[in-house]
TrEMBL record:
Pfam families: Penicillinase_R. Coiled coil: none annotated. This is BlaI/MecI/CopY family transcriptional regulator. It comes from the Bacteria. It comes from Ruegeria marisflavi.
């Protein structure tokens, strides 16, 4: 039996795969391959290998149905986003979320509409809906 590794962050390729699994809710290697191949052609065996590694890391679970394994997310998307953001804030912004937000706000690609959306979220969180 394969030993389960401690969960860490997903690699870029694993995140691409995980995004597909989150979007479709799970599926066989063929199901996931079909979705991935819409953007870039991949080999069945490569996809199967990456999915197995992700299962060993604790990001996916699998269950046998007929002759196929069906992979499902073991980690909800919002939980992974939260964990990744905390890790990023800790490592890159010295654990200061305000520094992360300040950097985001200073990004020239962030539009005024995006900033207004952020303001609305902050106001809601702070209970300042009247402003």
């Amino acid at each position: 039996m394969a030993r389960k590794q401690e969960r860490s962050l997903l690699t870029e390729v694993e995140l691409e795969f995980m995004t597909v699994v989150w979007d479709i809710g799970g599926g066989t290697v063929r199901d996931i391959l079909a979705e991935l191949n819409k953007a870039q052609t991949r080999a069945y065996t490569s996809v199967a290998t990456v999915l197995k590694i992700m299962e060993q890391k604790g990001f996916l679970t699998s269950e046998r149905h007929d002759r196929s394994l069906v992979y499902r997310p073991a980690v909800p998307k919002d939980e992974y986003q939260r964990t990744t953001l905390k890790d990023l804030s800790s490592k890159l912004f010295d654990g200061a979320p305000a520094a992360l937000v300040a950097r985001l706000v200073d990004d020239e690609e962030v539009t005024d509409d995006m900033l207004e959306s952020m303001r609305a979220l902050l106001n809601e969180r702070l209970g300042d809906n009247g402003r």
